[in-house]
Design goal:
10-stranded antiparallel β-sheet, 7-stranded antiparallel β-sheet, alpha+beta
């Protein structure tokens, strides 16, 4: 049974329904509030946590429950109430199911996963023992060692929920790695994939053939000395480690014809009280899809309708600390972006990584890429931009098997970078096709085109030649 449960309701769970849910283990369990009331926990008699309940979240963006849970959702707006049971305690799992079952019954709605709310009666917790502190110091942490924090997730898509984001921060502050363990059928949201730091952090996938493997590299793993590490081959040497690769990862999936248009760019704006953020993302979204983003949020599910003003207000309130947000599209045109806003000596920087998904019968609108680049270069202080086409899932989630790398379709150098480059180096490209000028002739940005064919990896050789040339190598 999954350790995470969610109630999707049209009405906000009122205090009485939440209390009824928290009494699912009877009146003897202790209730405590943390994070200024945003997190409520059920404890046993020794004060050890059994169930953690997040504050209800009002979701005003269509399609998030389907994207992250594979669940049918009420008409927006609706309330998303999430709870997590302590791992390894059977009664805690039953508490979680009863909690969301009571919420869905009293307020009106559904519980995820389907069938989790088998009963709304009181759960017998007599003689129950919970995970001791500090292993459960964070709601999402299942195992804590002196090297890593281990999170076990059994859900269709591991998303950047508020408590997983808190775990990322806590692990970083404690200088620990973060290892996410999932069953074979689970995928990652691009937000989690992009946030995973380097070793010893990794995505650990359970596999019936080899036990465990790294979901991003395919390396077979084993638990040793307090963390998951790669399994060494008997024939390995210092010069040739010969890391075994999981057969499941290597086989991957057949090419379904699905594609992604991946775009990453950075804009550097002059610091100004009148600055409005998010306009660069919106401009690209409109050029590629013909419509603005559907919603955004500081966690997943993205719960707020798209608003430049609200996004700007959040970033200014958090300044000088950086702000991270996720931006999503409509279910009809899958799109997802992460935006990191940082105040630096150069000004206000927006680092954006975004992707759009296309089915086998759809073609990525690559002809719109140049228009998007020109909009960034002329109106949004573009520094640089890289566009790739890759064979990957239309829904943008990251599967635990090999996916081919993207191939460069275009690279754009912002006008200020072109201006400050010595001589005429930016225009004297080593490629056969000359770069195209974007914006005013007196101060243009430069657009470098590449083949963009996912079956032809030579595009990376051309891209490397351009980079070496621009750096003066």
């Amino acid at each position: 049974m999954t350790k995470d449960v969610v109630a999707l309701t049209k009405k906000m769970p009122d205090p009485l329904s939440v209390i009824a849910g928290l009494l699912s283990g009877g009146p003897d369990l202790l209730v405590g509030a943390e994070a200024e009331g945003a997190l409520v926990r059920l404890h046993d008699e020794q004060g050890r946590p059994l169930l953690s309940v997040e504050a209800p979240l009002l979701v005003q963006v269509r399609g998030e429950a389907e994207r992250l849970l594979g669940a049918s959702e009420p008409e927006v707006p609706y309330w998303w109430t999430e709870a997590r049971a302590t791992t390894g305690v059977k009664e805690a799992e039953a508490l979680a199911g009863t909690f969301v079952g009571r919420i869905a019954t009293l307020v009106g709605g559904t519980a995820w996963p389907r069938g989790v709310a088998t009963s709304i009666g009181v759960v017998n917790t007599e003689g129950m023992t919970a995970v001791p502190v500090p292993a459960a110091a964070q709601p999402a942490v299942d195992v804590l060692t002196d090297k890593v924090a281990v999170v076990i997730q059994d859900r269709p898509v591991v998303a950047m929920t508020s408590w997983l984001a808190d775990t990322f921060r806590a692990a970083a502050e404690a200088e620990l790695g973060l290892q996410i363990v999932t069953p074979a059928g689970t995928r990652l949201s691009p937000t989690v994939r992009g946030a995973l730091p380097g070793w010893p952090s990794r995505w650990v996938v359970q596999d019936e053939k080899c036990g465990y493997y790294d979901g991003l590299s395919g390396a077979i793993l084993q638990w040793a000395n307090g963390l998951f590490v790669t399994l060494e081959s008997p024939d390995a040497t210092a010069e040739d480690p010969r890391t075994p690769i999981a057969e499941t990862f290597a086989q991957g999936a057949a090419d379904t014809g699905e594609r992604q248009l991946a775009i990453s760019f950075r804009c550097v704006h002059p610091a100004d009280d009148r600055l409005v953020l998010g306009g660069a993302v919106e401009s690209v979204w409109r050029e590629i899809t013909g419509e603005p983003p559907a919603g955004w949020g500081t966690e997943e599910p993205a719960n707020l309708p798209w608003s430049l003003r609200q996004l700007t207000d959040v970033a200014f309130e958090r300044s000088p600390e950086p702000t991270w947000v996720v931006v999503v599209g409509s279910p009809e045109r899958p799109g997802l972006a992460t935006v990191r806003i940082t105040r630096t000596t150069a000004g206000v920087e927006e680092d954006v990584t975004l992707a759009f998904g296309y089915g086998a019968a759809e073609e990525p609108p690559t002809e719109a890429v140049q228009k998007a680049a020109e909009a960034l270069a002329t109106r949004h202080d573009l520094q640089s931009m890289l566009v790739q086409v890759r064979r990957a899932r239309r829904d943008l989630s990251v599967p635990p098997h090999f996916e081919g790398p993207g191939v460069p379709y275009a690279f754009v150098l912002g006008a200020e970078e072109v201006r400050t480059m010595p001589g005429d180096r930016a225009r004297r490209t080593p490629l056969r096709e000359k770069p195209r000028e974007l914006g005013p002739r007196t101060r243009p940005a430069l657009y470098y085109p590449f083949p963009g064919d996912p079956s032809d990896l030579s595009g990376w050789q051309d891209f490397e030649r351009v980079m070496r040339h621009l750096k003066g190598s």
